[in-house]
Amino acid sequence: MSFPAPAENDGVDTSPAVADDVKTTTCYMCACRCGIRVFLKNGQVRYIQGNRNHPVNKGVLCGKGAAGIMNHLSPARLRKPLKRVGPRGAGEYEEIEWDEALRTAADWLSNIRATDPKKLAFFTGRDQSQSLTGWWAKQFGTPNYAAHGGFCSVNMAAGGLYSIGGSFWEFGEPDWEHARVFLMFGVAEDHDSNPIKIGLGKLKERGAKIISINPARTGYAAIADEWLGIRPGTDGLFVLALVHELLLAGKIDLDYLVRFTNASWLVRHAPGTADDGMFVRDDTGRPMVWDASRDSPTPYRDADQPDLANEHQIEGATAVPVFKLIAERYSDSAYSPDSVADRCGISAATIRRIAAEIADAAFNHAVSLPVSWTDTHGRQLETMTGRPVAMHAMRGISAHSNGFQSCRALHLLQMLIGAVDTPGSFRYKPPYPKPVPPGPTPSGKRTQPNTPLGGMPLGFPESPADLLYEDDGTPVRIDKAFTWESPMSAHGAMHRVIANASAGYPYPIDTLFLYMANMAWNSSMDIQGTLDALTAIDPESGDYKIPHIIYSDAYASETIAYADLILPDTTYLERWDCISLLDRPIGEANGAGDAIRQPVVEPDRDVRPFQSVLLDLGARLGLPGMVNDDGSPTYPGGYADYIVYHQRTPGVGPLAGWRGADGARSGKGDVNPEQLDRYIENGCFWHEEIPASARYYKMANRDYLDWAVSMGFLAKAEQIVLQLYSEPVQSFRNAARGHGSHQPPDNLRDQVQRAFDPLPNWYPPFEDSKTDTLRYPLHALTQRPMHHYHSWGSQNAWLRQITAQNRLFMHRDTATQLEVSDDDWVWVESRHGRVKGQVRLVDGVNKDTVWTWNAIGKRAGAWGLDGEVPEVTKGFLLNHVIPEKRSDGALSNSDPVTGQAAWFDLRVRVVKAQASEAHEAAPQLEAISPPPGQPPRPPRLDYGRAFRAKIGAE
Amino acid sequence: MTCLPQKTDRKLGLVIDLDTCVGCQACVTNCKEWNTGGHMAPLTDVQPFGPGADGVWFNRVHTYEVATPDGDSRTLHFPRSCLHCEDAACVTVCPTGASYKRAADGIVLVNEDKCIGCKLCSWACPYGAREYDATEGVMKKCTLCVDRIYNENLDEEDRVPACVLTCPTGARHFGDLGDPDSAVSQLAVQRGGKDLLPEMGYRPTNKYLPQRAKADHQTGAGPLAPLDETAGATGVLAWVDRMLTRAG
């Protein structure tokens, strides 16, 4: 409804022309990937609006997205390829032409590929084109590839994929329409930014209860009905105490457990043997249960009345149902609310009450939708009934050394109460769920010159045989992913690359090729150590220990100064991109989706989109799939050509919409040369709804599974059985106990045994045992403000006006004890180092925790900013005090299962700065020179003046 | 001094839900990007990449911790913009007639051609809603997107203020608060919509919906009773056996 324009006669033009043209594309102001409409006037961006039809944001746009104009016009934009002419880190560069830049890169890379392809380490940061970059690495023949997942949220992804075949964010979402209670654990507020905000609005409208479990009471927690300021690193313990309460009260969904999980599967109890803890299987490998109606072991799929409660003797061995192990484990008083309360910082009474509220919602207020459906056993059901308890978690749980198991604990809780893909609970987003474990396994052993890898470099190990060691025992990968240090490192371990490459351990490399990751600043632990590694010189050769560094980015970040060759990328409004189902999907629980970016404005600088540059390099190197038989490039039109014409397997390409010669097919189909036109006509996205009968119970819903197979998401329409108990995890534990031909080194046996528990467990974050916690009694965390995305926000003229300095948030009571007052300058000290910043006292934080906004602090000279800005003089990074190993003997500050960077394990103390000390952030690193050719900083910005239509002026 | 209209045909304004606002700043930057090219363009930024960066913003969000009656505290995100008061002191104080309230819809605007930049209006406004553009030498302020809400060049559903259009949580609502049957008026009544500083007597048009009391949200679930006080896992397993046998 709108109002008719009144006749006010005050000379106000109430209907000015807004745009000459409106183009749709996809936002890139964070990782959320919302649909946007870009209003263009006189070739300039007048306004960016959310796309109402888009499945991700449904028309809304966040604070970052609406400030996109200022990132697009940032003075920190790189303008031309650069080559280093001074020492690394000094920022002395010369502009070069693209031809020279590409020839230089191709020379380095072709030499590597012809001799030892592993000597290229290609890591791509916050890349939204991983299906291209991963494939490129495979075709090049290097296993040394990953994006930033290892230092972001791999625990969440792996914990979920190995348990329920899905996870949060891109894998699934709360049932916002039906949830009655919503538990939100430690959410980084830019992960699934707008969908969560839209969902919270819906919950508020319906009066659902929102419970925030987070050491800091920031944005989402502020509107929660209940905030539980938990102690960092204890979420898993809290969740297992809820499990304890629910189990002992019988508040679990037995029918769900029998039908959809492996609760009834029999586990072999044979301590000391190689198959202890493995499932009892028949000759064809099918997992067995004890069928009470037959009184005999029976394949799970065929059993009528599986026994969950009793152990049985099968062929002389004891076999125990998974559920019995669960009941015995978690009913133990070690998991009682009284036992965990102090460690979690949440009272036992509160834990009991939350458990009761979960049980009440789940079992007294079940949601039943009048939708008939058929399960994979052919049973027809007239309704879809579910448990309206939804959960969401993200980095807060993930970024600890116990994160993998904490994430699994959360999924255990969901499964026990029947709250996975049922009405009111958590819902998979297609193409999830995937089989558990998801496969394929990682590739990369025995690389050969000029030869692609046999498979993709990243994957999901199922047993120790899938680890990546060469025949001589050397780790295959430079980041030591898929080794005993972190066997299930499904996203690689980008945070270990620079240190390992500089140390030549496990082997030296030749070229480090990075894309869009600020590794010389806020994306690394121990920043000074990282800078030392980037600039370390081999005394024998006199050359850098990492001989070549190529970096591609759109902006003059802190990392630019450390590269030898810089390939300037475009902004997000100047490029083609695809948000592919082969990569990190978008979409929502009712349908599958993917999207594109199209250039809405032309670059005014000599820059090229990274993905097209990568394909150009691939063609110059003659990589299979990127050159035709005659040597000409397969994708002469760059990334746009690849998006349309590339096929990963016959009929499956980067985009799933409008496939087939006539554009009539979805999911699988021939190449459609007009595919991009169809996307643009539809608002630059494709979205296909799941049939109504297929929207819940997707793991065992025949209509869903058939649909998923028809779309190419699944190979077979078979039930995906949710895994309460993880057999792949147990297989690593058995190896640590001395079984099999692949065993961990002795120094890691205990760690592997402890961490690889087939049932979710909890152990204190590793940093607690490496630190004197009496000396460093506080936990320290970062969170991201909703209006900044990592380090990008500070170059944005508007966003930096909202936050240009980060404070150290500290509880008032804690401050009183430390004799610290509001606005004081303090040192934050860890066992590794110290930083100085300014405090802000609050009530809304766990008393044993201090925290700050991440990546607001900047190094002088970077991001197009004046060296005296608050980001430099007052902003600080906790990264300086986060320890990371810099020697071969020490272990990385990571989760022992997945290698996830344990950012939030940090322990510190806070000491008031002396009155004589400067009110300035410390450490202050020497200013870096901005790249040549950067425009002068404008003293004033009056963007939009040109758009103003004066009455009578026309 | 400038006169206010006797009455306005409509009282267009905003209803802002403080129980739902997460402080994400979407309304802040969307307002900025629309209005810097809109009716009062530009919304100038001074030293945008230097220390002391300062710009014109029609809408800002502040975050506070506030004490609750039970002695606890809550975090409150508070969006602040012009309230388009019925008795707008910023209008009556204006010496040139630049500041005025529209008779048709109640929107308070500034006619820049008449504004001499004396800043009396910003002194008069207790809400801090006026934004002086030192570069231009004139006072600027929220226009309630007067160039959007009637704009026939926009899709009809987009004819709302930019801050409302973009709000991800749906915490901002736009409509005629002079019409008691309008959705915004009804919402304000249902949720106990509040005037800001009512004691000042400026009769703001915009309403704020207060945070709901925490007590409203307890689910009322009673404590869980164990299946068997003493038996632990044995009790659980015996219960499971009974349940499954019955089901079978």
SS content category of chain A: alpha/beta
What about the largest sheet of chain A?
A: 7 strands, mixed
| Unreliable stretches covering 5 or more consecutive residues of chain A | none
Assembly state of the chains shown:
heterodimer
Measured between the Cα atoms of the first and last residue of chain A, the distance is 30 Å
Shape of chain A: globular
SS field, number of helical segments of chain A: 25
Count of alpha/pi helices of chain B: 6
Distance between the termini of chain B: 86 Å
Mean pLDDT of chain A: 95
Q: Roughly what percent helix of chain A? A: 10-25%
| Major protein interface | A-B, 125 and 102 residues
Report mean pLDDT of chain B, rounded to a whole number: 94
Task: Please outline the helices and strands.
The complex is a heterodimer of chains A (954) and B (248).
Chain A: E1 21-26, E2 35-41, E3 44-50, H1 68-72, E4 82-84, E5 93-95, H2 98-115, E6 120-123, H3 130-140, E7 145-146, H4 154-161, E8 172-174, E9 181-185, H5 193-206, E10 209-213, H6 219-222, E11 226-228, H7 235-248, H8 254-260, E12 266-269, E13 288-291, E14 296-299, E15 312-314, E16 317-321, H9 322-330, H10 337-344, H11 348-364, E17 367-369, E18 373-374, E19 380-381, E20 384-386, E21 389-393, H12 395-398, H13 403-416, E22 426-428, H14 497-503, E23 511-515, H15 527-535, E24 548-553, E25 565-568, E26 577-579, E27 586-588, E28 591-597, H16 610-621, H17 639-645, H18 675-681, E29 685-689, H19 702-711, H20 727-736, H21 746-755, H22 766-770, E30 778-783, H23 799-802, E31 808-811, H24 812-818, E32 825-829, E33 834-842, E34 849-853, H25 870-873, E35 907-912, E36 940-941
Parallel strand pairs in A: 6-7, 6-23, 9-10, 9-21, 10-11, 23-24, 24-25, 30-34, 31-33
Antiparallel strand pairs in A: 1-2, 2-3, 4-5, 4-25, 8-22, 12-16, 13-14, 15-16, 17-20, 18-19, 26-28, 27-28, 28-29, 30-35, 32-33, 32-35
Chain B: E1 12-17, H1 26-35, E2 45-46, E3 54-55, E4 59-67, E5 73-81, H2 89-92, E6 99-101, E7 108-110, H3 120-124, E8 131-133, E9 138-140, H4 162-166, E10 172-176, H5 183-190, E11 207-209, H6 233-247
